[in-house]
Design a protein that fits this description.
The chain has 10 helices and no strands. It is mainly alpha-helical. Helix 1 packs parallel to helix 3, helix 2 crosses helix 6 and helix 3 packs across helix 5. It binds adenosine-5'-diphosphate and nickel (II) ion.
């Protein structure tokens, strides 16, 4: 019998101490959102749950080695927990391509299960939680909150996106505000619309306070 709970234990151990907003609670929220979105989609819930749990293990921001090495870790955990080759492939295909790669870079195509997990991951990047995570990430990497002299950049390659060290406010324009139009599922789009409005309200207040207007 293959064991999802073994995967959960491994992922929890790896992300418990993570301090850049990709901690175990992020993984749990993504898992819960993905399971909720999956209820209205024709997808295999086991693949959705496994991919949600494992989606950040090989992430370029978090994994010290190459992408292939990160995907190897995912495969070995799945095999040790009793999952077969096909499950390994479906889950690593999602982990390989789930990430946002730049404002002007098209999202890589994913399976139906992958699109559910990508929507869940993107929902956790926006709204009140998304704002908190963005500043946690920026603080972790020593970024400024904001610098009016540095305008946002619409990155047209993953390299340019990945190597940016712009202030955190720029990240809203370079990624977070773009996500609502890049959702795949109906449930995801509806939830994203509300979270998006909240971020716009937040940014208005931020700039008003920056100018000392409120
Ligand atoms: P993705 O793989 O799509 O990037 P993740 O789950 O790895 O999604 O998390 C991305 C989150 O990490 C962002 O939504 C944000 O909170 C944070 N992050 C990544 N890059 C930056 C950045 N340059 N500035 C601020 N936050 C960032
Ligand atoms: Ni994530």
């Amino acid at each position: 019998m293959a064991r999802i709970d073994e995967i959960e234990v491994r992922v929890k151990r790896r992300f418990e101490e993570e301090g850049s907003g990709h901690d175990w609670w992020h993984i749990l929220r993504v898992r819960n959102l993905a399971m909720k979105i999956a209820e209205s989609e024709s997808v295999d819930p086991v693949i959705v749950e496994l991919a949600a749990l494992l989606h950040d293990v090989a992430d370029h921001k978090l994994f010290p080695g190459t992408l292939e090495e990160g995907l190897e870790v995912i495969s070995s955990w799945l095999k040790e927990a009793g999952f077969d080759e096909l499950v390994c492939r479906k889950v690593t295909d999602i982990a390989r391509d789930i990430s946002f790669k730049g404002a002007e870079v098209d999202d890589a195509p994913l399976s139906a299960e992958g699109m559910v997990v990508r929507d869940a991951d993107r929902l956790d990047a926006i709204g009140a939680i998304g704002i908190a995570r963005a500043f946690a990430f920026g603080g972790n990497r020593g970024r400024l909150l904001y610098n009016p002299a540095i305008p946002p950049e619409m990155h047209d390659s993953f390299e340019a996106y990945r190597s940016s060290d712009a202030p955190t406010i720029n990240h809203f324009y370079e990624k977070l505000l773009l996500l609502k139009d890049r959702m795949h599922t109906k449930t995801g789009s509806e939830m994203a619309a509300e979270r998006h409005r909240f971020m716009e309200q937040y940014l208005n207040q931020f700039f008003d306070e920056w100018q000392g207007n409120r």
